[in-house]
Amino acid sequence: MNILNIFKNNLYRTLSQKATIVMAFILIPLMTGMAVFFSEKTEIKGSIGYVCDNSVSIPRDPNINIEVLKEKPAFSSLLMGKYTAIVEKSGDNYNVTTLKSNKDKELIEGFFKTGKVSDANSNSDTVRKGIGTNILGYILMILLMQGIALINLYTEDRDKKTLRRILMSPANERVYLLTQGLFTFLSILIPSYLTLVITKLVFRVDINFSYGILFILVAIISALSTSLALLFASVLGTDYSLASTGIYVLTSLLAGCYVSLTGNNSVLSMLLGILPQKAYMTMIQGIENGKHIYQFSSQLLYLLVWIVGAYLLGSAVNRSKIKVGTY
């Protein structure tokens, strides 16, 4: 059984499984479209909750949305990205609560005291995060989870001992995993990219990325999703789906896919920098701000290491379990 035959077999099996079709070709485009419209609707401006008794003498800036509140909102509103900061007036001073860095905190405080936005603040993530970055950040976790859902063709063959029979044919373990990975990669990439392009063309949503760059960025997510799915499925066995979903939710949140978590804690910053999602978010935000993709060679290389490393490690674990008769 060669690559083409395995690929055809996967396609036939996918078409016979309604749940897989819904996830691969309906859910991904639907969630991508929702991310586009949600980001476009909110415009991702820095929203600051200002707790005070009246709205007199509130500073104004077109890039900052200030919402006057009578009571201090829950801390979770910062974590979920509803507010980038919560400001409380205390006499002549302003108490700022935020997940941003101390520098951003000082800039927000200075804005309320002086009514002016400094040049440094105009470039701050607190003020504005581009719509393209928010869209890709939003769908990043979704596409990572789709990799877990779509790798089920491999786990189904493995758990039903079909894999052992397949490997008795001319197709070796490398050919089989390569084909499964290619099928999963394309099933994530094609519907997601086409949805973004159609949305950009038909609904005239300015995603702030060219079609070529957008293809590369979505392809990177798709490749990372595929490799990590193989790794988790190989290492965690039958418990891979639930465990990997929890890992993706936590790491995507910490990496700033929804709200940037920055600070002056060097240890925490170093730990968060290990996450591949963090490198991806740094890269796409820089590209949207006008930099060329080649200026992020270190992030590209780091993501490539994750993609190749996860695939090779997952393949090695799978091969070792085949040898000992686990599969």
From TrEMBL:
Pfam families: ABC2_membrane_3 (PF12698). The keyword Acyltransferase does not apply. GO terms for cellular component: membrane. The chain crosses the membrane at residues 21-39, 135-154, 175-203, 209-233, 240-261, 293-313. Residues 117-314 form the ABC-2 type transporter transmembrane domain. This is ABC transporter permease. It is found in: Membrane. It is a multi-pass membrane protein. The keyword Membrane applies. Its main location: membrane. GO terms for molecular function: ABC-type transporter activity. Keywords: Membrane, Transmembrane, Transmembrane helix. InterPro entries: ABC-2_transporter, ABC2_TM. It comes from Clostridium manihotivorum.
